[in-house]
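User: My collaborator sent over this chain with a note saying "see what the structure looks like." That's all I know about it. Can you take a look?
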Amino acid sequence: MGQYSSIVSVKRNELSANFDERHAVEDSEKWKEVLKKLIGKDEIASVFDVETGTDFLAIMRTELGCKSDGIDFAEGMLIIGSQHAVERGVEVGFQLGEAVNLPYPDNTFDAVISSRALWTLLYPDKAFQEWKRVLKPGGMVLSFTRTQGKKDEVNNSVCADETESRLPLRSVNEIEITQALMNSGFKSAEAILLPKDLISIEDIKPWFAIKGIK
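Assistant: Without extra context I'll predict from the sequence alone. Here is the result:
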């Protein structure tokens, strides 16, 4: 694990105990509807979650019938995510590791998904190429994000300001992210604006799903 990953791992472990508070304003039933629409087709059988956190989305995908695996470089996140999976009566595979070095062979998953992860990538081009590698031909990458505009989504900072300033996707918009996917070899990419009622707080930037096809 590199120096940056080690720094972020320590911070994410510190945040893990209260990480679920971030989801308190999210409507889980409406998120399920979004997930079913985006990945609920029969051919989407296996889903991999990058920086899975405490498993908010991975568990819902499993409940929708997908086989879900997740990776995070914070053990504290995975411990809490495992507890949530047991409480909900679902099985999710967990791995301790990094988004740029996935411990899976080529062409393994139908979809690679992330949430609130894009801005944390120090080397997004390397991460996107790695995600593309483990996708089956025609598979999709689906990254959920609220585009930044300076430091909107970086309220619970995972590293020092001087390190954050080096993150390429820290303050880009959804169009720039789709272009980054295309530059990494995806056949197509689009930004999908998600319903505002996913979040119970008004005057907050909406969610986008950044979708790329291998």
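A starting point for your reply to your collaborator: The helical segments are 3-15, 28-39, 56-63, 75-88, 124-134, 161-164, 174-183.
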